[in-house]
Amino acid sequence: MTNLFNRWGIFLDRAGYNGSNAKDLYEELRNAYGKSERFYHTLEGHIGSCIDELDFVFGVKVPLTVEAALWMHDVCKDEAESVCWMKEFFGKLWFPESFIDEVGLLIEVTKHLDLPHRMLFGEDGSKREYDYLLDIHAGIVADADLSIFGKPEAIFDEYERLVRKEYLAVPEDVFRVKRAELLEERFLKRKVIYNFRPFREKYEIQARKNLKRSIARLRKVGW
After folding, report:
1. How far apart are CA 182 and CA 214, in angstroms?
2. How many CB atoms lie within 10 A of CB 92?
3. Can you tell me the distance from the alpha carbon of 187 to that of 192, in angstroms, rounded to the nearest whole number?
4. What Å distances lie between residue 84 and 29, 70, 71, 117, 143, CA to CA?
5. Fewer CB within 10 Å: N-end or C-end of the chain?
6. How high does pLDDT run on average in the chain?
């Protein structure tokens, strides 16, 4: 996995930030991700993996708003709260308002309530004026966030175990029903899980296998 602190420094440089406190900023971000109830959605875990996925797709040409959204998208459990946290964090670095606003839109996509395009623009295009790059970037952010679905079985199963630990307060029977519904309705029933061709080619087949296996396991009485 990428050395995250070094990668953070590169990100700040590319974004035009020339302050001398990159380490302090990284520690602030790590502390936000380091709450005791976090087991999967950690900085070194899920976020680091998302950043690695960007390198797979773009190499050194990662769009800044895409990378920024993935650094920040799970800093709070609720995406709207993550957007607020991100705006305050980047605002004190004097990042442009247009940049911060786009990052906020990309974070909202990681709710995965619908396909990224429809979440951003509406099914009939009524939510906002169409923006081609924003549309592409949203699909990439969503795909990177969901890349865990297409990992080998052992890695996916560990992800499932850690997610359950994050929701230990939810009774087992309720968790099983809601989790199975979420995986099936939001993801497995889609025509394609991944929006961007490199992710589809790399992960689509295994993701469907993993999701089917997980749903069957969640619905198996006595497992």
Report:
1. 11
2. 10
3. 8
4. 14, 15, 14, 22, 23
5. C
6. 94
Amino acid at 119: M
- With CA atoms as reference, report the closest residue to 145 among 34, 7, 49, 61: 49
Q: DSSP label at 34?
A: T
Extract the tokens encoding 69. Answer: 């959204």
Mean per-residue pLDDT, 8-28: 93
**Which ranges of 59-131 does DSSP label H, i.e. alpha helix?**
64-72, 79-91, 97-109, 116-121
* pLDDT score of 106 more than 90: yes
Please state the length of the chain.
Answer: 223
The reported pTM is 0.94
Confirm if 177 and 221 have CB atoms less than 8 A apart.
no
Distances in Å between the Cα of 137 and the Cα atoms of 6, 142, 155, 220 are 23, 9, 26, 38
Using alpha carbons only, give the angle 23, 68, 120 rounded to the nearest 5 degrees.
160
Whole-number Å distance between alpha carbons of 99 and 115: 22
Three-state secondary-structure class, residue 91: helix
